[in-house]
Design brief:
Helix 3 packs antiparallel against helix 4. The strands form two sheets. Strands 1, 2, 3, 4, 5 and 8 form a six-stranded antiparallel sheet that branches. Strands 6, 7, 9, 10 and 11 form a five-stranded antiparallel sheet that branches. The relative contact order is 0.15. The N terminus is likely disordered. This protein is elongated. The protein folds into two domains: 110 residues, no CATH class; 156 residues. By secondary structure, it is α+β, with helices and mostly antiparallel strands.
Length: 289
């Protein structure tokens, strides 16, 4: 199964998997901090579903209630997406999520549709002067878009990130680990080059063995090539996707999925998609402008 399909299927399942088992009414007084593992393609509903899969739902509800109270008291909540939203929205959405967990009901649509990185979101990046910024939807977009056009229109720049945090006092979250991959994608008629820069700060070593899978598509979603899943050193690397057939006269876009092994087991991942680059027959290469 190709990566774009995997991203789409995973996001669809996450949107459906919001019916949670009825938890205890209150978290134990000695409950450990709630652990959050989130990525830039997640919604708040995804983050909550991930947290309750391995932790007590009542503890997660209590953490959300503390966030709601913090926002109600006029303080920013340090959680991706929530940190840039109006405080009234943060208060309402976290309170609604907590109520759903306590009652064992479905998470509200406002929660499941709240993106942690809306458009360029909490990790907003400014485009070069005169170039088109990322964000929004394009034809055939089946994944979230973050980033901007650069290199006179010949490259697309974006961040994939995965974070791990622990709830702290007063509705705050201590983000102990932030793993980010900045990619520069430059397509041509027959292949694409990808320059990958890694940043891992702060870190406790919760994430390890980062890797990436880059797929290329033409038209709406016709697969034309892949790197396969390859390791990325923290010093960064470069990669190339050789297309099975030329995209001259058409369009091409890429999905980039960052993976990392978690100390607690399993892999966290984050999937992003570039804009479509146009590859006209009368040009010498592809361009995002």
């Amino acid at each position: 199964m190709r990566v774009l399909t995997r991203i789409t299927a995973t996001l669809a399942c996450a949107a459906l998997a919001t019916t949670l088992a009825t938890p205890a009414l209150a978290a134990p007084a000695d409950a450990p901090p709630v652990e959050w593992v989130v990525s830039s393609h997640d919604s708040l509903g995804d983050a909550i579903t991930t947290a309750t899969a391995t932790q007590d739902a009542a503890a997660v509800a209590a953490a959300l209630e503390a966030m709601s109270t913090r926002a109600a008291n006029g303080h920013k909540v340090d959680f991706p997406g929530l940190d840039t939203a109006p405080l009234a929205v943060v208060e309402s959405i976290t309170d609604a999520a907590a109520d759903a967990l306590k009652s064992g009901s479905d998470l509200p649509t406002d929660v499941t549709s709240f993106d942690l990185a809306p458009d360029s979101g909490a990790v907003v990046m400014q485009p070069a002067t005169g170039l088109r910024p990322g964000g929004g939807k394009v034809d055939g977009d089946l994944a979230q878009l973050n980033g901007y056009v650069s290199n006179n229109g010949y490259s697309f720049v974006q961040d994939n990130w995965i974070r791990r945090g622990l709830t702290s006092t007063g509705g705050t979250v201590n983000w102990t680990d932030k793993l980010t991959m900045k990619s520069y994608t430059t397509p041509s008629f027959t292949s694409s080059r990808h320059s990958l820069t890694m940043t891992y700060f702060p870190t406790t070593g919760f994430f390890s063995s980062p890797s990436v899978d880059i797929d290329a598509y033409t038209g709406i979603s016709s697969y034309v090539g892949s790197t396969g899943k390859v390791s990325i050193p923290l010093t960064g690397t470069s990669a190339k996707v050789a297309y099975y057939s030329s995209v001259k006269g058409g369009t091409v876009f890429h999905s980039l999925v960052l993976f990392a092994v978690q100390r607690t087991g399993g892999e966290a991942y984050d999937g992003q998609q570039t804009y479509k680059a146009k590859c006209p027959s009368d040009a010498t290469t592809c361009s995002y402008l």
